[in-house]
Amino acid sequence: MDLPPALPRSGATAPGAPPADPEPIHRETERRTLTALLAGLRSGRPAVVTVAGPPGFGQNGLVRWAAHRAERDGLRVLHVRAARFEREVRHGALARLLAPLDGAAGRTGHTGGRRAGPGAPPGPPEPGESPEPRELPGPAELAATARRWPTLLAVEDAHWLDAASLHWLSALVRRSVELPVAVLASGSGVTAEGPDWLSLPAGAPDQVVVCELTPAPLDAAAAAAEVARFCGRAGDRHFTAVLHEIAAGHPALLRESLRQFAALGHQPVAARAPELRTIGGGVLGDHVARVLSGLGAEVAAVVRALAVCGELLDFDAVCRLARVSAPGEDRLRAALAATGFVRPSSGRPYLEPAVRARVLEEMTVGDRADLHTGAAELAHRAAADDQDVAALLLGARATGAPWAAAVLRRGGLTALRHGEPDRATGLLARALEQEGDPRTRGRLDLELAVAELLSTPEAGDRRLGGIVRSAASPAALRVRAADLGLGWGDADAMRRAVAEVLPATRGLERDDLIALFWSADATPPDGSASFPPEVPALPDPPASPAQAGVRAWHLALAGDGPERVRELARAALAGREAVGGGLFQPRLAACKALMLADDHDEAEAGLTSLLSELTDDHLLVGLAPVLAARAELRLRRGRPAAAERDLGAAERALRPVGRYAVTLAHLRAVRIVVELESGRPDTAGALAAAPLPDAAQAGEHWPGLLFARALVASAGARPQEARELLLEAGRRLLNRHRVNPALLPWRSLAARACRALGDEQEARRLNRAELLLARRWGTPSALAWAELCVELCAGSTEGSDRPAALRRIVRTAGSGPAGPGGPAHTRALAEQCAAELAQGGRRAAAAALAELSTFEDATRPAGPVATRARHLAQELARSARSCGGAHALWDALTPAERRTARLVGRGHTNRSAAGVLAVSTRTVELRLSRTYLKLGITGRQELCSFLRAMEGR
């Protein structure tokens, strides 16, 4: 075919067109389609093709490939890449597209005569350069030449075409019937304003081939192929999966991430996945920034609003927040989806967290604050969750709206309850900024201090001290701050603050501050305490419920007058509803005093009430000490399983605090004893040897830890070590004026160690000293324990009626408010059983063993009490059988245990026996456990043999 002399040679590319790219990979379907269309164009068949998708999906690469292929096949190619600035220039990109036609007609003026590569679109017109072409050729002129020369018009980034250029191309499409002209355009739908380039195929006549291509994300196989291409070797499965996850099938992100990864010399293995994630995050951020810079104003505003509010608001609210008057919701949603990083979720657009972070980085501080403020108000009106609204308010401007402070406070308290002290601190601090009411500000200040005790303890201590010292703070608030600071903050600093303000206080506030000052143990281990002269001693009688609780604890430690201790402690707990009576430290002291006085039910009820109030008031910082006290109480009651549950809860509550070495020592001591009572000496030994912070040694619970370590040493047959630990514990207790043996019976255990070392005289002295103090204190548990130790010590050297003495000790241990089941009672029962058996009293021994088997200590299989009980049961069974007295063992069983034993002896399983007896399977298991213990047998087979012997007799 002869060509007009004024036209360029076949295959010429318009000035400014980007160079051809290599063949796009992983796009076989699209390339086949374009190849077929080019073949039809050579045959004279017109076509209009759009290649659309998110930025970076390779649309422009396909257009460049098709243009290069068309040139190679002898077609005329007019090729241009539209630029953003040309959106506002009439016929901007079109003038560059048609530049060859201008030259053919002798015209020289056209826009954008510079060449631009794929990554460098043309810049705006130079000064003095005409922004519009002169005598732009029309569609008819192009059609005239196309009849002799099949022409491909290739337009990249068609979303930046101006309205006039789109109108021109649409007119050409409508006139392209029977003309060898094809329009190939690529781009994305990221602009919602102005004309839509994707509407080009809509005006095509029926005879024109229409094709709309949408490149799909790369699949896992394509990702694996790209790994091999960039890294020179196949990647392992985990690495490829991480890459596919990071890029989400986005070709540009995937390839750029791999390019940077390979440039560092890394190998595509699982161990390098963290580096790949880091690189991928940076590549994604850069991609988001580029797309944002090219968005239309309305779409960009909506994306920024989405970055602030996420899925919290519906789409209409997001548009209001962005102040967008959208041309239509569907159009705007399509533009958002075309970005590639805005995805629909539950019908609402959604930004991935990494994208949100980058979008927020691209905004100014003021713009972010304005959007957060507007989003918070819209979310509050929509009754969104407090936590979500509070998160928006954190980044918003302080508006002073009452609802804002209330939402922030509720969000902060919820975060505190869920174990997020850092978040709680931030929310409560913002609430304090927003709140204007002085009374509410005081409450918020205190709650913020509690959160800071967990997140930044020094800041919490300072804030509490400031509240105590502030003359403007209400009296109740000052006292509450002192209560919290003395119990769970820096007690020494708070004592100084209380001492400073005491001279200026009056009335009930003064009484309570005095009580709080003396509630904290400030005596160092060497007993060299000095107290400010302006702090008076606790009055007797106490002037307030708080003083009564602290006074009860001091008297209990001194070991004198349990009735007076009970009276004061009950007054403290009963007065919690009075003004100042709800303080936690005095009530905790009262509960511990009741524990030493054997009033275990009242003490446990008081501790449980404290835990409930601490939880309700969001004072989670105080849970660990109270839980530790209740764990010790339950251990004293012979309930190690319940104590273990409290210890677990206390350790979880203490974990975020990380500063209370004193409480940690208390928990460690109780945990060691629980492990020993559960038959786990190895675990107890490991805990005893584990280090603790140096600050723990100066605390009031360090002697208790030394006592627990001594128990481990005794269990390991190391009496010398046990004696040294116990004497050191006693020395520290005496320096603190803590003489009550009910606190820690260190003397009796030291006496046992002395006996093991052959020092009988020292053993007797220590036992007599403890017995004297226990009699002065007078509680059944302390007295029974001391008498038991004296009896065991004397029994090895003196002849006495041990069974009678032990029966008396058992009665003493089981009397009183605490009732039976404590350590003194169970050990006295075991000793009574042994003594009765030694003197031939099998029936009395069986009765003692039967009573022992009803307590929890005897049901923990590996525990020392259970081990001793099994040994005694076996001795009793052997003695009874040798004398034909098996009936005595059978008589020791309860009627329910006999019925259960008979059913099991007849072949019933635990489940079927439970059905016959109308009880739970667990009840059957417990009955059998006690039966085996009382009969001195180990299981079902021996039970069946025992029953056959009974029936034969």
Describe this protein's structure.
- It is a single chain.
- By secondary structure, the chain is mostly helical.
- The chain is 61% helix and 4% strand.
- A hairpin with a 2-residue loop joins strand 6 (342-345) and strand 7.
- The longest helix is centred in the first third of the chain and has 22 residues, at 273-294.
The radius of gyration computed from the alpha-carbon positions, rounded to a whole number of angstroms, is: 43 Å
Oligomer: single chain
Distance between the termini: 126 Å
Quickly give the structural class: mainly alpha
Total of DSSP H or I helical runs spanning 4+ residues: 45
Number of strands: 7
**What fraction, in percent, of the residue positions are helical?**
55-70%
Percentage of residues in strands: under 5%
Strand order, sheet with most strands? 2-3-4-1-5
The rough form would be described as elongated
Taking all residues together, what is the mean pLDDT? 82
Largest sheet, if any?
A: 5 strands, parallel
Low-confidence stretches: 1-22, 104-134
